[in-house]
Design brief:
mainly alpha, 10 helices
Length: 190
């Protein structure tokens, strides 16, 4: 139990420190969701939703989810949103092996959470989920920025590739990529 508490404390500290450095104030719902996502990622051997994704592009999984029953649709849309968030923020170098880059994952993740929000919207008993997913859509890029900051601090990302950093900065305006460029004496114009 002590190890679990330390993981919670570690993730809380990382999220809080990244928010402070970046001067981003996440909503309590988004912060709690992010904490749960990081904790689940560290605890689960099957976090990457292999039963849902099965090596398919996330856009295909999203489209197929729309033709499934309510339970499977919510599971698959959540998987797409979560994976898009994790890949674009915490493990951006995972994207280098793909033919699409970070903007695809941002669009796919936001769309997935938006569909979840719409799915729960009509149900009075599910307003909490509707509000949560609406908040995740609104704060998606901020969540990526927080995760990218954590990724950089934990040395999960390659900060030597300035071409990739520039392309990702141009797509996202994530400050970590701008810092990488500045360290290489490149100041991108807005």
């Amino acid at each position: 139990m002590d190890v679990v508490d330390r993981f919670d404390d570690f993730f809380i500290d990382e999220i809080e420190a990244a928010q402070k450095r970046l001067q981003i104030n996440l909503s309590p719902q988004s912060k709690l969701y992010l904490l749960h996502l990081l904790k689940h990622l560290s605890e689960s051997s099957d976090f990457f939703y292999s039963e849902v994704v099965q090596d398919k592009p996330l856009g295909i999984v999203l489209m197929e989810a729309l033709h499934k029953n309510l339970f499977e649709r919510s599971r698959d849309l959540k998987a797409v949103g979560d994976l898009s968030l994790i890949f674009s923020g915490l493990y951006p170098d995972h994207l280098t092996r793909r033919t699409v880059d970070i903007d695809y994952f941002i669009d796919t993740g936001r769309r997935s959470y938006s569909l979840l929000s719409q799915m729960y919207g009509p149900y009075r008993s599910k307003q909490g989920l509707h509000n949560l997913y609406s908040m995740l859509v609104a704060e998606f890029v901020s969540l990526i920025e927080i995760l990218t900051e954590i990724s950089g601090e934990l040395h999960f990302m390659d900060e030597t590739n300035i071409v990739r950093a520039f392309a990702r900065w141009r797509s996202t305006r994530v400050r970590r990529y701008r810092q990488i460029l500045k360290r290489h004496n490149i100041i991108p114009l807005k």
